[in-house]
Each structure stands twice: as C-alpha cells, then as structure tokens.
C-alpha cells in the first residue's frame, strides 16, 4: 500500500493524452449519475423543510450549484484515483486512465467548479448552505479519496457522510438552518451506504484487491461482510420509518418504508445464505440493485407527499 501511494504522481502523469478531451469527456468526469442522485436528495431536503421559502429561480440555481459541487468532487476523485481506475474493469474507460483528458486538466477543472459552485450558492442562497457544500467537496475529495479509501476498510462507512449531506444542504438553502428533517434523511443515506456498496464489493473483491483498495471483503473477509450487511440493514429498516414518527412522512411513505425495509432485510438474508458461485453473485447484485430502488422510492414518496398534496399524516 505504501509503494502504491508513493508512486501516485508519476503514475497519474502517465495518463496524459496528446490532446485535451471533448465536452462529453469533461462531463463524464463529473459522475453524472451521482449528480442526478444529489439533485434528487437535495430537492427532497428542500421540500421537507417546515420553515423558510425560496423562489423557484433561487431554488433551481441552488440545486444546480449543489449538483456542480458534487460533480467537482467526483472530478477530483477521478484525478486522484486514476491509477486505481486504470486497473479496474468497471473504471478503466474513464477519461483520465483512457487517455482522453490530462490529469492536470482534470485537477484544474475540478478546482474551478468547486470554488465557483460554492461562491454562487453562497451568493444565491446563503453562506451556511455554501459552507456545507464546501465541506462536502473537501470531505469527499480529500478525506475520503486521498485518505480513507486507501487506508481503511471503513472507507465506505465514514466516507458515506459526503453522499448523505445533499438533503442537509437543501434544507439549509430553504431555511438557513439545519433541522431534524434533513438530519434524519442524512442518517438514512449514511446507514444505507455500507450495505449498498458492500454488496457490490462482494462481487468486485478481486478487482479491489488488484487495485490495492482495502474494501471490507478483502480485509475482514466475505463472511464478516455478509453479517455486517445484515446488521446495517436491521438498523436501516426501522430508521427508514423515523420520518413517519416525526410527522413529515405520511401514509404513502409509511407503506413504502415498511415494504422496502422488509425487502432490504430479505435481500440481505439472501446475501448471508448464498456464499458460493453464481448464487452468491446473484444475491449480492440483487441486494445492490434493490437498495438503489429502496432509497429512490423512500425519497420519491417524501417528494410526492410534500409537493403533490399526497401527504396523509399518521402521527397527530
């Protein structure tokens, strides 16, 4: 691990292409699929806020800046992880390891978007939201990418905080404060992240080992990882229903929360039971896929209840 870290600058420069990349290549640096999730969860953080109001224009600008900030952190992550990406099948065609964008160009692009998105969010909304966005970028690009990812099997657990912060930023945009609503949403995403990524890591353990990344299956072993997936899911299922108890999740949310939580538990038990061959892979990828659907439906239910008049309270 030490030799890999020490050789990073030279290996990163080895990816320099003859010419700069095209617009689609730069867009790919921003991890657009992650940006879509960030926009979605930040929007839910906005609509569940019981206090404050922003105009549609300010709200749209704020969502765009939050998305660009997330994209900037993804760009910086790709710049730093180019050596890792080059040896993993699912990431080898990213713009830097594939030689379409120079590493120094990606670094400059990521830094420019980081500063620009933070400043514009502060001017358009408020500086609390901008500060939270800046913290998220630094946490993901520096704390997670440059330290945790290569140093500890708890990388996903701790690093998950970055992916869980968009709802908090969204509420800060609207209310100028951080409330219990967005903190609960933060907690749901934070606890959801380990079982979601560890399910994939069970399938991709060989690639992570080749890249020198200490993912949980490579450090603690597959059996321990499966048990931890179950325990995190046991915690997640009731946590997903906290919005109902606090009164900002209604009947629709409760139904999805109960059924989705039971589904997550069922998939986690399948991961625990299936330990070999194709059955193991199917169980792990089933868990990975369903976890995405679960989180999407939870947040979509909140968005529908709060913005489409579908809210039917279960708690007085």
What report would you give on this structure?
This protein has 316 residues and is mostly helical. It is 77% helix and 0% strand. It has helices at 2-6, 8-13, 23-29, 32-47, 56-80, 82-87, 103-124, 127-151, 155-164, 166-175, 180-203, 205-211, 216-219, 222-239, 242-245, 251-273, 277-307. Helix 4 packs across helix 10 and helix 7 packs antiparallel against helix 8. The longest helix has 31 residues, at 277-307. The protein starts with a helix and ends in a 9-residue tail after the last helix. The model is unreliable at 1-10 (pLDDT under 50).
- Average pLDDT across residues? 92
Number of strands: 0
Per DSSP, the total helix count is: 17
Unreliable segments (pLDDT under 50, ≥5 consecutive)?
1-10
Structural class: mainly alpha
Q: What does the main sheet amount to?
A: none
């Amino acid at each position: 691990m030490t030799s890999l870290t020490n050789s990073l600058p030279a290996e990163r420069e080895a990816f320099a292409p003859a010419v700069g990349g095209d617009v689609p290549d730069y867009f790919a640096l921003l991890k657009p699929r992650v940006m879509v999730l960030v926009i979605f969860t930040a929007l839910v953080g906005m609509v569940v806020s019981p206090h404050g109001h922003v105009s549609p224009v300010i709200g749209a600008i704020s969502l765009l800046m939050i998305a660009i900030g997330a994209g900037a952190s993804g760009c910086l992550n790709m710049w730093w992880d180019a050596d890792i990406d080059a040896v993993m099948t699912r990431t080898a065609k990213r713009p830097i390891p594939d030689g379409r964008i120079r590493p120094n160009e990606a670094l400059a692009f990521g830094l420019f978007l980081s500063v620009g998105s933070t400043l514009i969010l502060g001017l358009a909304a408020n500086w609390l939201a901008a500060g939270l966005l800046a913290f998220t970028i630094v946490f993901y690009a520096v704390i997670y990418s440059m330290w945790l990812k290569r140093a500890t099997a708890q990388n996903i657990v701790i690093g998950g905080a970055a992916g869980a912060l968009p709802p908090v930023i969204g509420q800060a945009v609207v209310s100028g404060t951080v409330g219990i609503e967005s903190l609960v949403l933060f907690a749901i995403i934070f606890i959801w992240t380990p079982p979601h990524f560890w399910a994939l890591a069970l399938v991709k353990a060989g690639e992570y080992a080749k890249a020198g990344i200490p993912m949980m299956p490579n450090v603690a072993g597959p059996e321990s990882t499966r048990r931890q997936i179950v325990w995190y899911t046991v915690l997640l299922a009731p946590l997903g229903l906290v919005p109902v108890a606090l009164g900002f999740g209604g009947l629709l949310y409760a139904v999805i929360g109960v059924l989705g939580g039971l589904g997550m538990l069922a998939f986690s038990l399948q991961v625990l039971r299936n330990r070999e061959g194709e059955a193991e892979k199917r169980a792990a990828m089933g868990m990975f896929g369903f976890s995405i659907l679960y989180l999407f439906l939870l947040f979509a239910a909140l968005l529908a209840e709060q913005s489409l008049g579908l809210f039917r309270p279960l708690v007085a």
